[in-house]
Amino acid sequence: MTCRLDALCFDAHDPLGLARFWAGVLGWETSGDPLDGIALLPSDDTGFRIRFLPSQERKVGQNQMHFDLTSSSLADQRRTVARALEFGARHIDVGQRPDEDHVVLADPEGNEFCVIGPDNAFLADCGFVGALACDGSQEVGYFWSAALGWPLVWDQDQETAIRSPHGGPKITWGGPPLDPRFGKNRLHFDLAAPDGGDQQAEADRLVSLGAKHIEGEEGRVVLADPDGNEFCVLPPRSG
Question: In this structure, how many other beta carbons lie within 10 angstroms of the beta carbon of residue 17?
Answer without folding.
Answer: 15
